[in-house]
Fold this protein.
Amino acid sequence: MKRFISLLLVSASFLHAEPERKPNILLITSDDLNHWIGYTGRNKQTKTPNIDRLSARGTSFANAHATVPVCNGSRSSLLSGVRPYTSGVYGNGDDWRNVIPPEKTLISVFRAAGYLTLGSGKLYHGAYDRKSEWDDYLQSEGPRDPVPAGSKGVGGIRFGAVDAEDSELSDHRIVDYGIGQLQKKHDKPFLLTVGLHKPHMPWFVPKKYFDLHPLESIQLPPIKENDLDDVPAAGVGFARPKGDHKQIVDSGRWKEAIQAYLAAVSYADAEIGRLLDALDASGHRDNTIVILLGDHGWHFGEKEHWRKFALWEESTRAPYIRVVPGVTKAGTISTRPVDFSSLYPTLAELAGIPKPSHVEGDSIRPLLADPAAEWKGHALSTWLQGNHSIRTEDWRYTRYSDGSEELYDHRSDPYEWTNVAADPTHAALKNELAALLPVKNAPGLTKGDGWRDAGQGNGRRQNRQKGSGGAAEDTD
């Protein structure tokens, strides 16, 4: 009888056992954060102690790339799972909402799977928000960010120190929202997205961050004279050497611009640190997946080019850090090539959510468990219709819509100074890489000048006040 009663109790306990709770997710994005951070070693001048401590907790990808080297295209792709050559969403003028229904996005799929969706700041490109996908979203980022007195930069490259406290910038209020949510107890697993505007231009941050990077110590990035000589016309057209680069060189303020960007990165890092402190002080740390990424890269005169809008390493490569309790090992770095199309399917797998059929990316969970695992994947970046770049562990192969090509051997040429596409000894390799190029090439949603739509032309709308009442934002 006692045994029978014990079995009944065990059975009752089993029947009423709570299912294992899904992991929480904290997704941090930092706008225009390129690969000038600690773990990549790309620029020793950078100071990112908080990003570095996050990197020390999990797996960091040193060969991670944007699917599109511009804000709107990158964000709509990684959050929808649909690549730009399928959706037609390339530049900042392409309204992704016209082709991606709400039920297909990462946020909506996780919400339907029982997640509480919470967010603040810039996750989608600001012009095309769809905040209805979240259960709760910070509606106002407060007053406009302060601007410096006097000079505000060179042409479209705007920078300067501001006489202000950190709390006067919108990113501080964006992080405050995230901190507030981490301090709460939630009845359901949460997906919390915190989107920082910095280091996106304008690089207007408090002077103390400029002081971390004294002007006299600033070094220019490695540059090869006449670097565009072996680049096809299509690539030179993306570089636009007579535009921002010429203005910066003629002004004599190249180092000042780099100082300002480094200062903006350090400011963003400090805000990320506040968020990590709040996570550590909460009861959520041990059951929260943390992801940090920049949405694409940024040029500072490499290839006589500034900004993104190109298919070289500086435009496509960005930070990608994942901390997954029970899966990642502390302080590991993977050099395997991945792109941000992996965000959606990997999170779905980790949360036990079936991968939606429309999602085109692949899960990188094997690399989270073993960063050196055998990997046949590659990174693929696209800029405007028909222009694609394949990044493997050792090579970058780019083919433009007119058929012209670039090929760089990253084992000996990490700054992509020597285009060896014309070398006949690489013919077989080029064929192998060309076979990875997409056959789809959807036209962009926006007709007309793609550069203007991307924020590069004379129609650039700068310092537009966001409809939410938050920080001013360049549309590039």
Q: What stands out?
A: Confidence is low (pLDDT under 50) at residues 4-17, 448-474. The domain at 21-473 is CATH 3.40.720.10 (Alkaline Phosphatase, subunit A). The radius of gyration is 23 Å.
